User: Fold Ferrochelatase from Echinicola pacifica.
Amino acid sequence: MDKVAKIGVLLVNLGTPDSTAVPDVRKYLREFLMDERVIDIPFLSRWFLVNGIIAPFRSPKSAAEYRKVWTDRGSPLLYHTEDLRDKLRLKLSPADYQVEIAMRYQSPSIETGLEALRQAKVKKIIVLPLFPQYASATNGSVIQKVMEIVRKWQVLPSVSYIAKFMDHPLFLEAWKRVTEEYTLDRDYDAYLFSYHGIPERQITKASCNGYCQLNNKCCSRQTPSNQYCYRAQCFHTSRLLTEKLGLPAEKVHTSFQSRLGKDPWIQPYTEETIKTLAASGAKKVLAFSPAFVADCLETTVEVGEEYKEVFEEAGGKQWDLVPCLNSHEVWVDCVKALVEENS
Ligand SMILES: C=CC1=C(C)c2cc3[nH]c(cc4nc(cc5[nH]c(cc1n2)c(C)c5CCC(=O)O)C(CCC(=O)O)=C4C)c(C)c3C=C
Ligand SMILES: [Fe+2]
Ligand SMILES: [Fe+2]
Assistant:
């Protein structure tokens, strides 16, 4: 007789090239940036921008950056996600849950992860995009991809999506524990929460009835109208973390990194915030990357190295970066709780 059906869990992170070879990085960047939710401009313009400019010129530079963080287990984004899966499997009963991982772009694919769950005859699927704040470019893209795949199945599965989790108590507790394990020093001149940016137009497009005006009035509190405003969610995360970590609110700053192209992205930009901090006399800064759960190029290289240089060139003395949650036990507990609360 068949056993009682389990619940399938699919954890999805962004993606990573198969290797640090330039052709693999180019293939990854092409798939990633041709996503209409990431570069949300008309198809032909996107095609020429990605294939004619970004992929050819950026791939060698990105490949060199990947080489800095690559290990014999591959890309950090991938192996941290594998470690998270392995630890979660130990915490959830295998009789009740089957846990798989996927990358939105490249490997392991979402198709492969969903197919493993289908073969396991799960009774429902819980999809957790590993981005704490909802953005169309990340969680939205993962959810759309899952929908595109399962809509072709003969038997349509029951699927639930965890669209954001930046206010989950265990997410905040995990950041507290990781921070305390990194440093107990509270003698910093400033604390900087640097989030991945997105183009301003993506905020406007996700806004309810024109609520989001991209200013501090609309983003300074969370309401039903701006619950999916990525900028408002980031400011909300900063407020929650400030309280949880017991940081002096007047020393806390929020900013947005990784701008690509000439269009306006959400502000303030991290680079300008750092220069302003240094100009106002800050010598010692503690930085956090709370839009990411696993360390990757954007944290280790961009925040940990490039922004450190910007700070030091502007007169700063000490730039410290708190690592991401990676596969910390409390973060694994958070994912377990998210899964159980949605079961
Ligand atoms: C061009 C538009 C981009 C949007 C919009 C965007 C949103 C976005 N991205 C993340 C998380 C990650 N992005 C990463 C890398 C990355 N992102 C973009 C562009 C956009 N991102 C580029 C061009 C790159 C590649 C950088 C390079 O290879 O040089 C990564 C890191 C991947 C890794 O290290 O393996 C993550 C993670 C979020 C959370 C987000 C919107 C909220
Ligand atoms: Fe990105
Ligand atoms: Fe807003």
Q: What stands out?
A: Residues 39 and 119 are 34 Å apart (CA to CA). The two ends are 24 Å apart (CA to CA). The chain has two domains: 7-165+329-341, 184-321. The longest strand covers residues 7-15.
